[in-house]
Amino acid sequence: MKQKYYIDTSVFGGYYDEEFETITRLFFNTILKENVTILYSELTENELEFKIWLSDA
Questions:
Q1: Which contacts of 16-20 are long-range, i.e. CB under 8 A and separated by 24 or more positions?
Q2: 28 FRET partner, CA 20 to 30 A, in 17, 19, 34, 53?
Q3: Could you tell me which residues come within 8 angstroms of residue 34 by beta carbon, excluding any fewer than 6 positions away?
Q4: pTM of structure
Q5: How far apart are CA 35 and CA 55, in angstroms?
Q6: Whole-angstrom distance, CA of residue 20 vs CA of residue 41
Q7: Per-residue pLDDT reduced to its tens digit, 2-24
Q8: Are 54 and 44 in contact (CB under 8 A)?
């Protein structure tokens, strides 16, 4: 059975946070290697899009 992980904005944010980057990058690398499914809410998607929009401004 394929594993599924529900993640929120803080997991994506951990990728760029010194305190959490090592474990978060390991988590994302594991996801890519094991071909698991990532689930996230519409709110998380909106927050990430807003963050990208802010960084482009």
A1: none
A2: 53
A3: 3
A4: 0.73
A5: 29
A6: 22
A7: 899 999 999 998 988 999 999 99
A8: no
Q: List Cβ neighbours of 22 (8 Å cut-off, separation of 6 or more).
A: none
DSSP letter (8 states) at residue 12: H
Long-range Cβ contacts of 23-26 (<8 Å, 24+ apart): none
On whether the CB atoms of residues 26 and 35 are closer than 8 A, the answer is no
Greatest distance between any 2 Cα atoms in the chain: 42
Name the burial class of residue 18, with classes exposed (0-12), middle (13-18) and buried (19+) by CB atoms within 10 angstroms of its CB: exposed
